[in-house]
Design goal:
alpha+beta, Immunoglobulin-like, 4 domains, five-stranded antiparallel beta sheet, disordered N terminus
Length: about 650
């Protein structure tokens, strides 16, 4: 090809052709790596139905027990840092409780992830300037907390009243600092009550933690806050230890609602045997073996706990986490669907035992709570059995243009042989479907007409917003609409995943805000509307939405913006008159009236109208009575029968 090129230029021509060819190859390769609409070679579809408030980790290991990947991790652990925050691990809990590291939330997953080749532990978080058994602030170590709060009424901080409380309009917490080598050298410790020996001790804390710290906070810079400089590193340090943490984080699923998660198998995974695991934890899941009597509020060692830690909250250690184990095979024929009915084991509460985090016998865990008393908790029924009695399922799905043969290579078309039903003691296989070579499908389209506006309820517009969109175009069935909210602009996929948090629904339900799940069976162009919740007042949000089909192909990201309002009663107590009459917003009588407002009045349109009228006139009335002791006494007398009646309401 270079015969007609002058001899003195032939060398340059050859080099030019080589360089051009390399550039073309690099371009093609790069394009293949960044196209989000190409199906993976193999997909895994995980299916389960959790109970309310279930914290979940899903991960995959090879047949030899080597940890390979985290598929999903619920937000309380991955983003809110409940496993690695200030406060002793035995410390009581409550509604959105801010303190007490929950080492027992998902310990099997945590131990196995940390034991993987090349894995690191997270830096450990402790209180800034108080002991780990202290719930009361005695020093300047606090800043505004937009998520966690404390309930200062013993009746409302119990396990049975978690559905009757809400966070105060303004709460300050200590976000903590990192434990240092100097702390370890000085044997910095947390109080620990040994249940078996009814004795207490101070347990020195190791430098590392199995769980990520909070990623939902940034260090404040004003004069009236006291965040430690370590807070600036929390989010990035979590990502350094677990780079995929943003991608695998999921909002807590709504209870009793079937879930299906798609996982694209990495190209480097060889055909062969693998094992999928799901670990599930529900706080306060009592039964006869694990409850607030067998694992009570800790009181020992005597000097380890302050009065607040002993009086408020509830003993949260019910049944420990439960694990389901499901073997599957990559590279086989067909699309086998495997499922498991029985739990493989459980964890324990022996946090300071050298073997803690190992899979233990499922004994002493409730098996079928539907036939038992409520006190027997959910147990293995944290994942509900389906019509076949199965609780955790995985289907191996082919996403390539042709099915894979047993060696993992593309077959030459046609109907593949029927897949074998490979079972072990804990698994069952359904009849796999035949897989025809899939045709080329057009890319998934973008959602259109995306907009966001303030919520119609003025008493919720500071934390709720309305989302509207039109359904995306897709030749394949839509698997889900991924909705993420961010306080930074969403410009591309990295910012959508890294800065956007999974959207929650807007609800007053007892279990709180859970994952927002938009309908997927809506025709292209049809309108979809939903309310987003769990937002922060007076904050500008970017709401990103993309559609994903059943081959785990993602459509383009569409973005809307919304600014939440100020809370109507942000500057004064919401129970104006009662607060003035009883002298404190933390008085038990005020808490009872607030409960009636939140649970009964705000849940109906007439009730909301009454509350709105009260908020219009309440501040003026409160200012009138707060200056006169006789008037306050008269109002208390008038409110007494109302409070007495309110206390009888559930």
């Amino acid at each position: 090809m270079f015969a007609k090129v002058p001899k003195q230029f032939q060398g340059l021509a050859r080099r030019a052709v080589v360089c051009a060819s390399l550039a073309l190859l690099i371009t093609v390769y790069a394009a293949s790596r960044v196209r989000g609409d190409e199906p993976a070679s193999v997909l895994l579809a995980f299916r389960y139905t959790p109970v309310a408030r279930a914290q979940v980790a899903i991960w995959i290991e090879d047949a030899a027990g080597h940890f390979l990947a985290t598929v999903a991790l619920t937000e309380a652990v991955a983003y809110r840092g409940i496993g690695n925050r200030p406060g002793a691990s035995e410390m009581n809990s409550g509604y959105r409780w801010p303190y007490g590291r929950r080492e027992g939330v998902l310990p099997i997953w945590a131990q196995r992830r940390a034991a993987a080749t090349g894995a690191k532990q997270f830096p450990r978080v402790i209180f800034q300037n108080r002991s780990e058994g202290a719930g009361t602030r005695a020093v300047s170590d606090y800043s505004v907390d937009d998520y966690y709060c404390l309930q200062f009424d013993t009746k409302l901080s119990s396990r049975d009243k978690l559905d009757a409380v809400s966070c105060a309009s303004l709460f300050h917490s200590d976000k903590g600092r990192y434990l240092t080598p100097d702390d370890v050298a000085k044997q910095y410790a947390e109080p620990w009550q040994d249940i078996g020996r009814d004795a207490g001790s101070m347990q020195p804390l190791p430098l590392g933690s199995l769980y990520p710290p909070r990623m939902d906070v940034t260090r404040c810079t004003t004069d009236d806050c006291f965040d430690h400089v370590d807070l600036t590193h929390f989010a990035q340090d979590a990502r350094d230890v677990m780079p995929d943490i943003d991608a695998v984080t999921r909002a807590t699923a709504p209870g009793e609602v079937p879930q299906e998660l798609l996982f694209s198998v990495p190209a480097g995974w060889a055909p062969g045997a693998y094992v999928a695991f799901i670990e599930v934890n529900v706080e306060g899941d009592y039964n006869a073996q694990w409850n607030n009597t067998t694992y009570p509020t800790p009181r020992l060692p005597d000097t380890g706990w302050d009065q607040y830690a002993i009086v408020y909250g509830y003993a949260y250690r019910g049944q420990p986490s439960v694990v389901y184990e499901l073997p599957f095979t990559l590279g086989g024929a067909g699309e086998p669907s495997l499922a498991v009915a029985e739990a493989a084991g459980r964890s324990s509460w022996d946090v300071w035992n050298s073997g803690y985090g190992q899979l233990e016998s499922i004994s002493l865990v409730s098996k079928d709570p539907s036939s038992l008393a409520d006190s027997d908790g959910s147990g293995v029924d944290r994942l509900h059995a389906d019509s076949r009695g199965m609780r955790f399922a995985v289907q191996v799905k082919k996403g390539t243009a042709a099915p894979l043969n047993a060696a993992g290579a593309a077959a030459d078309g046609g109907v593949p042989p029927q897949a074998e039903a490979v079972l072990d003691a804990g698994g069952v296989a359904s009849d796999p479907t035949s897989t025809q070579p899939t045709a080329a499908f057009a890319p998934v389209g973008a959602v259109t007409d995306l907009s966001s506006r303030r919520h119609d309820n003025p008493l919720r517009a500071h934390t709720w917003a309305i989302l509207r969109l039109s359904a995306a175009r897709s030749e394949r069935p839509i698997h889900d609409y991924e909705v993420r909210v961010a306080t930074e602009p969403i410009n591309d996929v990295p910012s959508f995943i890294r800065d956007g948090r999974p959207a929650k629904n807007a609800t007053d339900a007892a279990e709180g805000a859970t994952a927002l799940m938009l309908p997927t069976d809506v025709p292209e162009g049809a309108p979809i509307e939903a309310a987003i919740g769990d937002l922060v007042a007076q904050t500008h949000y970017y709401v990103g939405v993309r559609a994903t089909d059943d081959l785990n192909r993602h459509g383009p990201i569409s973005v809307a913006e919304i600014t939440t309002t100020a809370r109507k009663f942000a500057t004064v107590s919401p129970c104006f008159v009662a607060t003035a009459a009883y002298g404190s917003a933390l008085a038990s009588q005020v808490a009872v009236l607030r409960h009636v407002r939140d649970r009964y009045l705000l849940s109906t349109a007439p009730g909301r109208a009454i509350v709105a009228a009260y908020y219009a006139a309440g501040p003026l009335a409160a200012r009138a009575i707060e200056r006169h002791a006789a008037w306050r006494s008269l109002v208390r007398a008038c409110l007494a029968p109302v409070v007495a009646l309110a206390k009888r309401l559930p």
